[in-house]
C-alpha cells in the first residue's frame, strides 16, 4: 500500500514515517527538505522524498494536483492549518484515495466542560489556531466525507527526544527544568491545578498506523491521541522534581502577578495552555483503533528532558 505523508520529517513524522516503513507500506514523504528528522533510522534511506513547498504550491493552486499525481492509496496530512488548504487537497483527491488522515489538535475543544473530554463534546474553540483546526475538522467530517473517506486524529502536546516539552509552568522555557533540578523555588500560576495533556510523538505515530489498519472503524471519525492521563501543573512539577532527586519547592501567584516575573512570550504561551487546560479521553481510540500508548505523560517528558540535559552537558 502506498502512503503519502505530508510533513513526514517533523515531530510526528520522525516516528510515523519510520513506523509506516516498518509496517511494510511504500512511503512517500512530502516536505521541502529543509530539516532533518529528529531521529536517525535505517528506514530513512528507503523513503521516497518528494520535495514540495506546500505554501508556494497552494498559492499557485497546484498542491492538491501534485499530491494526487503520487497515486497514493492513503494520504496522511500533518501540515494542514487552514480550511482552504484542506479543501484544495480534498477537491484534487476527490475519489482518488482510499483514506485521507488529517492531523488536528485537542485545541479544537476550547474550554472543557466535563473531563476527561470525549470526542463528541461540543466544540468551543478559541484562539486562531484552535478555531482554524476546528473549522478544518468540521469541513472534513461534515462535507468532505461525501467525496472521500476521512479520519481526524487530535494529538495533545507533542513530546519526544530532541525538543523541550511544555513545562510545569505551561510554556517551553527549558530553565524551568533546571530550576527544579537545582532544588530552587519555582513559582506556578494560580494554584497549579490547571492541566496539560502530553503525548509521545511515537504514540501519535502508532495511532495513525492503527487508523490506517482499522480503516472501517476510523473513517468518518475523530479521535483524541494523548497519553492515558493529563497532568496538573503542580503534580507535574512535584513529580519532575522528585525524578531529579530534589524536593519540589513551589510557590503560587495569581496569573496576572505571575506573568510580571516572566518574559512576554512565556506568559503568552502559559496563558494559552492554562486557558485550554486539556484533559482528554482516549477510550474511543482504544476501543475502535486498538490505540495503546506506550508512554504516560511523565515517562514521555522524562525521556525528552533526560535526552536534552545530556545533550547540553556534552556541548563544549
Ligand atoms: N506541536 C504540538 O505540540 C502539536 C500538538 C497538537 C497537534 N499538532 C499538530 O501536529 C501536526 C504536525 O506537527 P509537527 O509538530 O509534527 O510538525 P513539524 O515538526 O512542524 O513538522 C513539519 C513538517 O512539515 C514540513 N514542512 C513545513 N513547511 C512545509 C512546507 N511549506 N511545504 C512542505 N513541507 C513543509 C517539514 O519539513 P521541511 O521543513 O523540510 O519542509 C516537516 O516535515 C500539525 O497539524 C499540528 O497542528 C501539533
- Give me the CATH architecture of the largest domain, please: 3-Layer(aba) Sandwich
Strand-pairing-aware structural class = alpha/beta
Annotation field: number of helices: 13
Q: Given the C-alpha coordinates, what overall shape results?
A: globular
Q: Specify the biggest β-sheet.
A: 7 strands, parallel
Strand content: 15-25%
What is the end-to-end distance? Answer: 46 Å
- Low-pLDDT residue spans: none
Radius of gyration: 20 Å
What's a quick, concise take on this entry?
It is built from 13 helices and 13 strands. By secondary structure, it is α/β, with parallel strands linked by helices.
Would you mind describing this structure in some detail?
- Helices cover 40% and strands 17% of the residues.
- The chain is an alpha/beta fold and 316 residues long.
- The protein folds into two domains: 2-158 and 198-225, NAD(P)-binding Rossmann-like Domain (Rossmann fold), CATH 3.40.50.720; 161-197 and 229-278 and 296-314, UDP-galactose 4-epimerase, domain 1, CATH 3.90.25.
- A seven-stranded parallel sheet has the order 3-2-1-4-5-6-11, with helices on both faces. Strands 7-10 form a two-stranded parallel sheet. The protein has a two-stranded parallel ribbon with strand order 8-13.
- α5 links the parallel β5 (99-103) and β6.
- α1 packs across α7 (201-213).
- The radius of gyration is 20 Å and the shape is globular.
Amino acid at each position: 500500500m502506498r502512503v503519502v505523508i505530508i510533513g513526514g520529517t517533523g515531530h510526528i513524522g520522525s516516528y510515523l514515517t519510520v513506523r509506516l516503513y516498518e509496517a511494510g507500506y511504500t512511503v512517500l514523504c512530502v516536505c521541502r527538505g529543509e530539516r532533518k528528522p529528529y531521529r536517525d533510522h535505517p528506514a530513512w534511506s528507503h523513503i521516497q522524498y518528494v520535495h514540495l513547498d506546500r505554501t508556494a504550491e497552494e498559492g499557485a493552486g497546484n498542491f492538491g494536483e501534485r499530491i494526487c499525481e503520487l497515486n497514493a492509496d492513503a494520504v496522511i496530512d500533518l501540515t494542514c492549518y487552514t480550511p482552504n488548504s484542506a479543501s484544495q487537497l480534498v477537491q484534487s483527491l476527490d475519489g482518488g484515495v482510499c483514506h485521507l488522515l488529517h492531523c488536528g489538535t485537542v485545541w479544537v475543544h476550547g474550554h472543557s466542560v466535563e473531563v476527561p473530554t470525549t470526542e463528541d463534546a461540543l466544540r468551543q474553540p478559541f484562539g486562531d489556531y484552535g478555531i482554524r483546526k476546528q473549522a478544518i475538522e468540521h469541513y472534513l467530517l461534515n462535507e468532505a466525507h461525501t467525496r472521500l473517506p476521512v479520519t481526524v486524529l487530535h494529538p495533545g502536546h507533542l513530546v519526544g527526544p530532541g525538543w523541550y516539552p511544555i513545562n510545569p509552568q505551561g510554556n517551553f522555557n527549558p530553565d524551568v527544568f533546571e530550576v527544579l533540578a537545582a532544588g530552587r523555588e519555582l513559582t506556578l500560576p494560580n494554584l497549579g491545578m490547571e492541566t496539560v495533556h502530553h503525548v509521545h510523538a511515537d504514540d501519535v505515530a502508532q495511532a495513525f498506523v492503527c487508523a490506517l489498519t482499522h480503516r472501517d472503524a476510523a473513517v468518518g471519525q475523530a479521535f483524541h491521541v494523548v497519553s492515558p492521563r493529563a497532568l496538573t501543573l503542580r503534580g507535574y512539577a512535584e513529580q519532575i522534581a522528585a525524578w531529579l532527586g530534589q524536593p519540589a519547592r513551589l510557590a503560587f501567584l495569581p496569573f496576572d502577578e505571575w506573568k510580571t516575573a516572566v518574559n512576554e512570550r512565556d506568559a503568552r504561551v502559559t496563558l494559552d495552555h492554562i486557558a485550554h487546560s486539556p484533559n482528554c479521553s482516549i477510550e474511543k481510540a482504544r476501543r475502535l483503533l486498538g490505540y495503546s500508548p506506550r508512554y504516560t505523560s511523565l515517562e514521555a517528558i522524562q525521556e525528552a528532558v533526560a535526552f536534552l540535559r545530556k545533550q547540553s552537558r556534552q556541548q563544549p
